Amino acid sequence: MIPDSVWLAYGARVVRLRKGDTLFDQGETASRFYQVKSGRVKMVSGNEQGREFVQGLFTEGQSFGEPPFFNDVPYPAAAVAVEDSEVWSCGRPAFLRLLAEHPAIHLELTRVLSGRLVYKSMMLAEIAVEEAEHRLATLIGYLRSADPAGLSRPYRVGLTRQQLADMTGLRVETVVRSIKAMEQRGVLEIEDGKILWHGRADET
Questions:
Q1: Facing residues of 57 across strands?
Q2: What average pLDDT does the segment 36-55 reach?
Q3: In the chain, count of helices (H) and strands (E)?
Q4: Which are the contacts of 125, defined by CB distance < 8 A and separation ≥ 6?
Q5: Quick one: CA dihedral 59, 61, 67, 68, positive or negative?
Q6: Could you give the maximum distance between any two Cα atoms of the chain, in Å?
Q7: How far apart are CA 169 and CA 8, in angstroms?
Q8: Residues with Cβ < 8 Å from 124, sequence gap 6 or more?
């Protein structure tokens, strides 16, 4: 979203993470703005039983952890590298100056955050009332709509069964069974272990 040249102009630094490294912990106060330069980072929260829920998975050019940053409150989730990654990190005063001096970036960030609110609201309703297949179809449909390559058919889902489970509040065994059932109905197919999506969220 924000070009490297702009980050450098405002004194941002690159944080390098190995797969499994934690950038910040759940409960840590947000003081810096982050954007993925390369790799993938997930925001994940856990309970006392060790169950994880992935609140978001972020790739190159995507920022994360914005609401706690702007409200100066603790993070509700930890940020963990899914693979070796690089992340831009910018302090609060410099980033607020960046937004003030680049209204187009400010507007784009507002658009991105609004889209995230729509996604959170949608998934909250799914988890509260919908069955497993519907949750998965809605999540995959959202990922497809947000992906520049998503117009291609079939759409190749870049998430593992475990990641799909973590993002929908399901057990991985339930995800596996649901995917098998959708495959039998022709909504999707499996190729080299990856999901190729043919259907839409309203087709299940």
A1: 42
A2: 85
A3: 7, 11
A4: none
A5: positive
A6: 54
A7: 38
A8: none
Confidence class for position 152, pLDDT limits 50, 70, 90: low
- What is the C-alpha separation between 62 and 35, in angstroms, rounded? 5
| Residues 122-147: tens digit of each pLDDT | 888 888 788 999 999 999 988 887 77
CA separation for the pair 147, 131 (Å, rounded): 25
Has this prediction a pTM greater than 0.85? no
Residue 79 has φ and ψ, to the nearest 5°, of -110, 120
Tokens of 180: 């098998």
The CA radius of gyration of the chain, in Å to the nearest whole number, is 18
Examine the pLDDT at 111 and tell me if it is beyond 80.
yes
Token digits of residue 115: 């889209």
Instruction: Give the alpha-carbon dihedral of 77, 83, 85, 90, to 10 degrees.
Output: 0
The confidence score (pLDDT) of residue 145 equals: 79
Beta strands in the chain (DSSP E): 13-17, 22-24, 32-38, 41-46, 52-58, 63-64, 78-81, 85-91, 155-157, 188-191, 194-197
48 DSSP assignment:
T
Residue 18 has what DSSP assignment? -
d(CA 21, CA 140): 26
Q: Scanning the structure block, which residue is given the tokens 């187009």?
A: 104
- Cα(13)–Cα(198) distance, rounded to whole angstroms? 41
Q: Specify the DSSP element, H or E, that contains 114.
A: helix 103-129
Ramachandran class of 72: left when φ > 0, alpha when ψ lies in -120 to 50, beta otherwise = left
